[in-house]
Amino acid sequence: MSLPPDSLSIASNAGPTSPYVTQIAGVAVPALAERFGTPCYVYDAAMIRQRIADLAPFDTVRYAQKANSNLSVLRLVRGAGVLVDAVSAGEIARALAAGYQPGPGDHAAGQPAEIIYTADIFDRASLDAVIEHDLAVNCGSPDMIDQYGARCQPLGRKRGVTLRINPGFGHGHSQKVNTGGEGSKHGVWHEQIEMCVERAARYGLTVEGLHMHIGSGTDMEHLGRVADAMQAFALRVGPSVHAISAGGGLSTPYRGNEPPVDVAAYYSLWDATRRRLAEAWGHAVALEIEPGRYLAAESGSLVTEVRAVKQMGTKEYILVDAGFNNLVRPAMYGAYHPLAVCPAEGVPQPSAALASFVVAGPLCESGDIFTQKEGGYVEERSLVRPRVGDYLVIGAVGAYGYTMASNYNSKPLVAEVLIDGGEPRLIRAAQTPADLLRGETSESSRD
After folding, report:
1. NCBIfam families of this UniProt entry (predicted)?
2. Assessment of whether the complete model's pTM goes beyond 0.85
């Protein structure tokens, strides 16, 4: 019997003859389910630390917290020396609560801001928070420069800003995560760079950094094009630039049998770019990277219980108690996540047969399928036949899992658990039905 690649990429105990997963980071899956309920998100702290260590050659690692913004995760990455970005007033509040210090930083002095606000617009709450805490700003539109400058000028603040540049091309594992080119809303269009530098100067702002990100799950060829484009655009801005950011987009091996991204080669590519810029300008240029998915994705598992197994024509379905309200990526992008069964008693069968299944959730929505391709095309996976009451573990969900969850079908948000040193700890309690109703108002009934 051959082992499906799904089993290999979820837990280290999936040996060469076992298609099961029975533990996550050394803790038994049934014990996690019994203690925290299902569905529940479980994160492996050691995996996050390992991915941070991978990026040590970069001068600054800045976590894109939109991937997973739980306070315990933010405190973990902060403890490992990672800085953070924020895309909303809420994420600013999270960063501050996690212990990150406010302040604009100083790229020229080699002191990057601990928190940077990076977006394509300021909503009013975000702009107020940026001004209140005097945060660094990465501008993704010319209007952001005007709005930020107009608030800074009366305060006498002459600050450095970063520009996020759209280089005119993009790439990603799905068109929905392609963040470059005319089809993307993200960044300052590359033909407007000089105009933005001049606009910033009107308010006493200096462009001290450039940032570029073309999409999530991009390959080395496209990432190389970004480095070349960065050099050309930076030379157009000139020696006021003291830092460049490679953005994010490092791929995650969701299928388990994919080769890991060559971080050393990626760093060498960008290091060569910054060295050429430093030589041209006669001063040091700091090199940042802004991972989100890369740090968090592989750490996460979604533990869900099998509630039905049924035949639908030629296809057999496994129905679990997690749905796209918990993990929307398969429904939104056709994203692939590894799947494996854990017996309720935690003991694998010695000679388990494999069969093909569609895996689906409980929601009143035909798109509530975990095994689908982009466009909603249902596919099957090779899995051990489960029984009702067994568990299904969905792997590599640490990024854009919980943060994109919803209360669709009035389903409460689930618990989050962090395992560190073999000890599981609740880091977010599951919602209750009462939580769903809190804050809503209703008129009293009338006869």
Report:
1. lysA (TIGR01048)
2. yes
